[in-house]
Automatic annotation (TrEMBL):
The active site is at 150 (proton donor). One of its GO terms (cellular component) is extracellular region. Residues 34-77 form the Chitin-binding type-3 domain. Disulfide bonds join 169-177, 265-297. This is Chitinase.
Length: 297
C-alpha cells in the first residue's frame, strides 16, 4: 500500500471510531493565559484568572485569596502560555503592560508617560529583567510602588515644599552648583535631589544634569532614567541597591531603606513604611506574583 493510501486509510479509521489524530511533529499547545489574578478583584463561581503560568477557575465567591489558595476555592485548570507566564509582549520587553501601568496609576500626571518609562529602560537593561519572571515582576512592582509613594501616585513632578529648595546645594563639591543655589530640588519619580546626585546621575546617563537639572522635570524619559539610575546604582542610606535587594531576595523592606533609610525605617515613620508596603502588595497582585518575604524595614 502506498504511503498516501495508508494515510487516507488511517484518516478514515480516525473518523470512524472518533479518535483524536495526533500528527507527529505538531506539539499540542497550552491554553492561553486568562487575565492575571488581582487581589482587589471579586471573583464569582466560574470566573477565571491566571497566576504563575497556570489558569484557575473560582468555585465560589472569593476576593484576596491568590491561586492556588488554601481553602479549595480555586480549581487548577492547568498550565497556560506554554507552561510559564513570559513577560508580556510590550515595547522594550517590560514586564508591566501599559494597561497594568494605567491600572496602577489611574490619577497620574500626564507627564509620566508609559512610553517615557519604556524609553528609559535601555539605560539599565538589567532592570526588571534579572532572574525569573516572578523576580522581574516583583522588582518592577517594588520600583513602581516606591515611585507611587514618592510622587503621590505619579502626580507630583517636583518637590512640593519649596522652602527646601535652597538646602540641596553643597557648595563644597569641586563642581559647585552651576545651575544656582536653589536648582537641585527633588524631581522625577524618585525625587532626585542635591547637586552631587544630579552630577552623578548626569555623568552615568550622559546628560548635562548638573548644569541643566530642569531636564528631569521637562523630559519624561530623562525623569524615568534618573529614577532607574538611583534604583540600580545607589545604596543611599541602606547597605545595598534597591535592585540588589529585590533580585537577591533581601526583600522589599531593603528598597525602602535604600531610598529613605532611618527617616522611615527602624521605627522612624512606620506609617510611611506601611504605605509603601501596601502599595507594593497591590502592585504584585496586579502582576500576579507573590510579594515575597521581608516586606518591612
Amino acid at each position: 500500500m502506498s504511503r498516501l493510501r495508508a494515510l487516507a486509510a488511517l484518516a478514515a479509521l480516525v473518523v470512524a471510531v472518533g479518535l483524536v489524530a495526533i500528527i507527529p511533529g505538531t506539539p499540542a499547545s497550552a491554553a492561553a493565559c486568562t487575565a492575571s489574578w488581582q487581589a482587589s478583584t471579586v471573583y464569582w463561581g466560574g470566573d477565571q484568572a491566571s497566576r504563575g503560568g497556570r489558569n484557575y477557575q473560582a468555585k465560589w465567591w472569593t476576593q484576596g485569596e491568590a491561586p492556588p489558595g488554601s481553602t479549595g476555592v480555586w480549581q487548577d485548570l492547568g498550565a497556560c502560555g506554554g507552561g510559564t507566564t513570559p513577560p508580556p509582549t510590550n515595547p522594550g520587553g517590560f514586564v508591566v503592560s501599559e494597561a497594568q501601568f494605567n491600572q496602577m496609576f489611574p490619577g497620574r500626571n500626564s507627564f509620566y508617560t508609559y512610553s517615557g518609562l519604556v524609553a528609559a529602560l535601555g539605560a539599565y537593561p538589567a532592570f526588571a529583567r534579572t532572574g525569573s519572571v516572578t523576580v522581574q515582576r516583583q522588582e518592577a512592582a517594588a520600583f513602581l510602588a516606591n515611585t507611587y509613594h514618592e510622587t503621590g501616585g505619579l502626580v507630583h513632578i517636583v518637590e512640593q515644599n519649596t522652602a527646601n529648595y535652597p538646602h540641596y546645594c553643597d557648595p563644597g563639591q569641586p563642581y559647585g552648583c552651576p545651575a544656582g543655589q536653589s536648582a537641585y530640588y527633588g524631581r522625577g519619580p524618585i525625587q532626585l535631589s542635591w547637586n552631587f546626585n544630579y552630577n552623578a546621575a548626569g555623568n552615568a546617563l550622559g546628560l548635562p544634569l548638573l548644569t541643566n537639572p530642569w531636564l528631569v522635570q521637562n523630559d519624561a524619559s530623562v525623569a524615568w532614567k534618573t529614577a532607574i539610575w538611583y534604583w540600580m546604582t545607589q545604596n543611599g542610606p541602606g547597605t545595598m541597591t534597591a535592585h540588589n535587594a529585590m533580585v537577591t531576595g533581601a526583600g522589599f523592606g531593603q528598597t525602602i531603606r535604600s531610598i529613605n533609610g532611618s527617616i522611615e525605617c527602624n521605627g522612624g515613620n512606620p506609617a510611611q513604611v506601611q504605605s509603601r508596603v501596601t502599595r507594593y502588595q497591590q502592585f504584585v497582585g496586579i502582576l500576579g506574583v507573590p510579594a515575597g518575604a521581608n516586606l518591612s524595614c
